[in-house]
Amino acid sequence: MKQHPLCTDTEHVTNVLDLAIPAQVKQEWAELQTRRHFLGRAGKVLGWAAAASLLNNRALRGDNYSAAGAPGGDSLKFPNFAPRAKRAIYLFMSGGPSQVDLWDYKPNLAAQFDKDLPDSVRGSQQLTGMTTSQARFPVAPSHWAFKRYGESGTWVSDLMPNMGRIVDDLTIIKSTNTEAINHEPAIMLMNTGNMNAGKPCLGSWLAYGLGSMNDNLPTFMVLQTKLNTDENNQPVSSRLWSSGFLSSEYAGVGLRSAGDPVLYLSDPNGVDREVRRKMLDAVNEINRQTYEELGDPETNSRIAQYEMAYRMQSSVPELADLSKEPQSTWDLYGPDARVPGTFAYNCLMARRLAERGVRFTQVYKRGWDMHDNVTKILPIICRETDRGCYALITDLKQRGMLDDTLVIWAGEFGRTVYSQGGLTPDNYGRDHHPRCYTTWMAGGGVRPGITYGETDDYSYNVVKDPVTVRDFNATILHCLGIDHNKLTYKFQGLDQKLTGPVPASVVSGLLA
Amino acid sequence: MLPIKQSTRIAWAASLGLSLLLLSLPWLVRLDGHSHADWQQFLGRFHPLAVHLPIGLLVLVPLLEVVGALRPALREAAGFVLALAFASCLVALSLGFLLAYGSGDSGAGVSRHLWGGVVLTIVVLICLLARPQWHAKGVGYAYPTLLACMLIALVWTADQGGSLTHGNNYLTQYMPAGMKRVLAFGTTPSASFYARHIHPILDANCSSCHGEGQAKGGLRMDSYELLMKGGKDGAVIVAGNSGKSVLFQRITLPPDHKQFMPAEGRPPLQPEEIRWIKAWIDQGASQTVAKLDGITIREELPEAPIVPVGDYSSLMPEIQKMALGQGAKLKQVSAKPSDGLVLFTVDAASTFDDAQLAQFQKFAPYIVEAELDRTALTDACFDTLKQFTNLRALHLEETKITGSGLAKLASLSHLSYLNLSGTQVTAASAASLNSIKSLRHVYLYNTPAQPAPAATRASQPATPAVEAAQPKEKSAQ
Q1: Is the Cβ pair A328, B331 closer than 8 Å?
Q2: Phi and psi dihedrals of A8, rounded to 5?
Q3: Which CATH architecture has domain A87-265+313-510?
Q4: How do residues A468-496 score in pLDDT, each as one tens digit?
Q5: Could you tell me the fold of the domain covering B313-470?
Q6: Which of A47, A432, B42, B403 is 20 to 30 A from A342 (CA-CA)?
Q7: Residues of A in contact with B270 (CB under 8 A)
Q8: What is the predicted ipTM?
């Protein structure tokens, strides 16, 4: 038995061959030993090979160049073709925003108030446990008026006056649809292409495929918006930015919504940069030995992450320092943006991350899950998010960044046209609705000023140009120059990919 | 030379007579542009159906003759196929003539197609006559030459016919832009609203019936003058009044209306196209006005295709060494090396200066994008940048440049994106960018040049997509 290098105990090692046991068992043990010995040696060789690649720290982060230095760039796989977008910002609206009240304008529903949703529309749709026992499904028209905006004449709810101003920059998808009806499976499906946990998310796939543009910040960052307790908040967990079976250095790195953006990042009193560096070198050396012993690639991830943290000690304070932002920024994003953790602040931060070469930033906003009291809560959450989304798009555009940045706005599903619980002239609730929901994209690679897909008169079923979650993700990858069928990773005997085994297709109608 | 038999002589004479009859047909029965009996149209509409039979057979004949050299049985069949082709030619020709005469089609395209059909039929007839003698080794290359002529006549006639049904640009409409350029299809569009937006709509939807090929109702819409002239019932456009313009009335009828245009079940115009036509007519139906009130159309200028850069494989070791170190580095745009390189400086932005940029000179022709934002570059950088001949996108935001060297970028013929936000570039120095014809996106946010982006744009109508790099709030002031 080999001892761990840090272990100083002198352990008595028993030799099995000396024990009083049957010869046959001894024989078996010896054979096993040989195999272990062989595997151990093999591991070491692999370890050295990997250690050699350590010197090339970019190769570790999935970057495009191998240490072998194959001329002509043979080693480069991604992007598969010249990308339209170099980076992406994903505004994730957790809980399921109501397409009926925000984007999917159905003027004829007003006359249907409190009438039953026709069975022919609902069909054999499975319902959640929350409404399945309801005696009837009364249609609840949106409480808010809609107006037409922009050259495209797109209808937008009065809840989002600012979004109306940039509607010509958006690519609105009314026909997004999912297979999951509850939050956790649906949000996993949206983010990882699979309802079960354990698969890498979109950001991790991008980090794995495209690598970093900035050595001093993580490739994939996650910003959580702080809770508003007036809203019904569904949990958002780090499973959503997990790297799954990919190396953990591709996992999203979260910035905290309050206090230090990254905990324990600053050096403790009495430790200066030089001491920190020496300590890291020593820790890295030990990690390297461990890697040589055990060959676990996660050890390399750990080394890379220590190094990243070290560099982030200077890059993150600079990132979080908003004192140099001009007044025009605050005029654009609004006063909320001065408060860390608000949605507007996170939108501003997303722009700053994009400026600094972060490949993928995901902003989570919880609270869209409105089973009741829609008329009270929806205006609150729209006030929180409308300005931020508008400001982000406008800001990226005026700075010339919208040309090569893809912005995505999506939740995990939509909401039902019928009321959950009691329907009154002033209030209603809406249950989860997977069959159609509205999402939008803007910027690099997508066609601005269009609305794609159509739903029926009840905003219940897609009647034209459906976009599945697979197609949605394939299209995002396409904008970033990736063929979704080529971005694969061998795991459990399969070439795993974000879009899963069911065929997916890039939605060409969305592309510029 | 074999003696010519009596029967052969008769066949030649009969053929001569038939040919003369076919040739004089367009004069005997003139296509007067008026529609005639319904039965003629009924039969005539079988022409597009029947016409494919002779096409197939005629292509088969040379094939059988050639392959027949190896398998004589096939060559024997060729004679029969040729005869059958001739018969079907006659049928198709008759039906086609009935179609044109019955429906009152006229126009250069119809005449060309008709003449093509006549000539083709005659050539096929001569082939039919020449074949037995060629078979008997009487004539050497005459028959194969005739077959070649026949194929040429066939392709030309079929193309003319296709243009009548589908429009002139049917085959080339979706041709890749690069191929179009090589084959020199399409002309440079003029800057007027008519030329950029109205004419393409009419061309795609109307000109196959109202164009050079056919001019139904005497109306041609393939040029501005002819469109304004109108058809046999008078003008179709009343400048300044879309309601009184027949064209506008007909395209806005319910699609199942008898007089709805485009007719014969062709797809209706898009709502936005109808909106543009309405605005164009209401605002004077001008040929030259470039901009209409209330209509802003996003230019769907496709991004310029990527020009392949040269082979830089000999520089790869150096590029890869750079990738491992700190500081500026070059990365491939994509897995395809010919897509070029991107210069990234984000890791060393604050220390990256003109001298360091100069070291990238040897990579200059391979760099298509340079991310030089937030670097220590000054106006001296343009001396190096002007050698980046394949540069498409240039980021210089938040640098110390004042724009005095911007004119040096004029040599970059592919440059389409230039970001100067947050620099000290003035309106005067930014004006020198007008000479770069390839520029599509210029950003001057937070610069002294910002208040006057409209002037930059107005002086440069040829590049309409130059973005006004200005927040909306400010432009309202």
Answers
A1: no
A2: -100, -5
A3: 3-Layer(aba) Sandwich (3.40)
A4: 999 999 999 999 999 999 999 999 899 99
A5: 3.80.10
A6: A432
A7: none
A8: 0.80
